[in-house]
Amino acid sequence: MGVVLPPPPLSMLMLVLMLLPVASASEAEHRLFQYLFEDYNEIIRPVANVSHPVIIQFEVSMSQLVKVDEVNQIMETNLWLKQIWNDYKLKWKPSDYQGVEFMRVPAEKIWKPDIVLYNNADGDFQVDDKTKALLKYTGEVTWIPPAIFKSSCKIDVTYFPFDYQNCTMKFGSWSYDKAKIDLVLIGSSMNLKDYWESGEWAIIKAPGYKHEIKYNCCEEIYQDITYSLYIRRLPLFYTINLIIPCLLISFLTVLVFYLPSDCGEKVTLCISVLLSLTVFLLVITETIPSTSLVIPLIGEYLLFTMIFVTLSIVITVFVLNVHYRTPTTHTMPTWVKAVFLNLLPRVMFMTRPTSTEEDAPKTRNFYGAELSNLNCFSRADSKSCKEGYPCQDGTCGYCHHRRVKISNFSANLTRSSSSESVDAVLSLSALSPEIKEAIQSVKYIAENMKAQNVAKEVNMVFIMASLCSDA
């Protein structure tokens, strides 16, 4: 008696029905792959007639502008190289393979044009062939490999950071001449539809041109497609972090001349500004190319500012030297007085401090009146009273009048600085020894005050000369 098996579940039947077309399609692609590459040679150029060239349609799509190395003059880009050609050996009828019209195969299995970047600066000249190519039943082959290129680019930093650059990328076949490969440019410029915007550079335009060149090495004519990439630097970063600080630091140099000499910080401020500008100049030197062909304008500006700051340090040292001169160490020449005390103050609308010599006539008149009174007083006998003066508290009025005169005269003499008046007083022999000793002391004080006034006037002259030099 046999064993009766249960019917298969409905889900299993549905799964089998779904896998049948997939297995059938995979079998069709397998048969197609064997058919195409059974006698295929990826080294042979795919043309029916050897004299005919392979027409290659070429287009470059910019994915990303990675960076522009100004120092080494290298531009790094991420590109997609679109290449389309026809291979007569890779044709088939879709009806023979269950309607398969497209097939993706490894790129190393088929013939490919050896298009390289001529002006490659670093890295591989050719793209990686690990990506797959798309085959169409008509024999059309489309291969779009991605690649990161480092191309050489001549950088002109004259107007850094407001500069424009023109970097070229030259693509062409390294082995096949014009008779073997005919390059056809797709479109008139680089494809920027999938471009990822850069934070430092903006692409203005990227036109493409086809050239035919005969090199010295060979007799054949070679074709190439050259893209000119016009880029503009975005200056916001450098404006905020470089230009504005440089302008503010340069403005501090002008304030050095407004700073008073007595504060003692003029030279310190100048040296601080000079060191700051040196740091900014080093930053620019690390950014721009190490070339002697062109010098950026901002570098020339910083260099000029450093020279200006250096001259301001020299002028400040001279001003401080003049400011702290004294009559005991230096004598001011006549031409310095004429220039810095008479000519320059008028030109710069500066007012000289008034000299004490202008008040000398008033002082002399005051002293003359006091001395005349004292001479009249000295002709009287100091030990006898004058007739006609009544006595007051045991002292005659004449003696009281003498004390008042002497007291007033001594007070006026103390406020004066004229040694001639003191000499005139000492010539009065009628004075007592105590008065003579007091007058000698007053004379000593007056001579010292006069010397101090003279020194002060000379110092004011030197200070005035330093102010004119600083202005």
TrEMBL record:
Signal peptide (residue range): 1-25
Domain Neurotransmitter-gated ion-channel ligand-binding positions: 29-234
Main subcellular location of this protein, as a coarse class: membrane
Membrane spanning residue stretches: 236-260, 267-289, 301-322
Lipid bilayer topology: Multi-pass membrane protein
Gene Ontology terms: biological process: modulation of chemical synaptic transmission
An MF annotation (GO) of this entry: acetylcholine-gated monoatomic cation-selective channel activity
CDD domains xref list: LGIC_ECD_nAChR_A3 (cd19016), LGIC_TM_nAChR (cd19064)
PROSITE patterns named among the record's database cross-references: NEUROTR_ION_CHANNEL (PS00236)
Domain Neurotransmitter-gated ion-channel transmembrane, residue spans: 242-460
Protein name, UniProt field: Cholinergic receptor, nicotinic, alpha polypeptide 3
Taxonomic path: Eukaryota, Metazoa, Chordata, Craniata, Vertebrata
